[in-house]
Amino acid sequence: MIRNISLFALLTLITLSVYGQADPSFRRNQFSALLINPAQAGANAADEVSIVAGKSLIGFTGAPQTVSALGNFRLFKNMGLGTSCYNDQLGPISTNRASLDFAYHLKVNKDWRIAMGLRGTIANITVDLPSLSTTVINDPHMQGVLNSGTRFDAGWGLLAYSKHFYVGLAQPRIFNTKFTNATLTQVTEGKSFGAYIGGDVAMSKDWSLRPIGMVRYIKGLPTIVDLSATATYQRMFDIGVNYQLSSSIGLIAGHEINKKLYVGYNYNYPLAQLNRVSSQS
Length: 281
What we know:
This protein has 2 helices and 18 strands. It is 5% helix and 57% strand. It is mostly beta strands. The protein has a 14-stranded mixed barrel with strand order 1-2-3-4-5-6-8-9-12-14-15-16-17-18. A two-stranded antiparallel sheet has the order 10-11.
């Protein structure tokens, strides 16, 4: 039986890198960690279904946007099953992926467990070149639509966790995705790695703090570091901040409506030069 449903919206006005669209890097790791690490399957205290949506560069044509749906279930005492699917739009690039995760959880002692997860993925990526405006009329290099076709991929992940702390390491995709047509040489979408650490620390009878740190890496692109801290009041109301190194700062808010439904929102403000042409407050 599903015991928890989470809805979370991410509104940001920063530029996302290509890898961020290849594997959505939602800052609300509490509800999106399964996208990065298959070992998260079955690690939650309750079965959970989450919908996470994000949009960047509000008001810009072709602005990045992503919608994801995730299911995280504990099958047996030591096994977990995860499902995820998402649609991602980044200008002319459209990505659709669906994944199935399986994880085994090994009890180390009375406080700690180690989980090992495997992932199978099916995906399709298209690049609609004719939708772009160019300075050359009827440019022959921009007439075709790149399509990866149906691609299969795999991933792995490790997770060590207790009631109050966790640390994870994962490679959500092992293989590269390549496109080829008559006029363009191969275009490759690279694979990524992710590592994160976090906790849930009681500050008082009513307040607790959930700090999270995450590092994402892909060859040839800048390493991205995300930090966040969320304070929770009586396990019902969340307020927090997040920071992406040299890129943005944001606010987090959330409310547990009841034991089965949580709604949250995250707004990010750019620290780079983009804020000079945006009207955000």
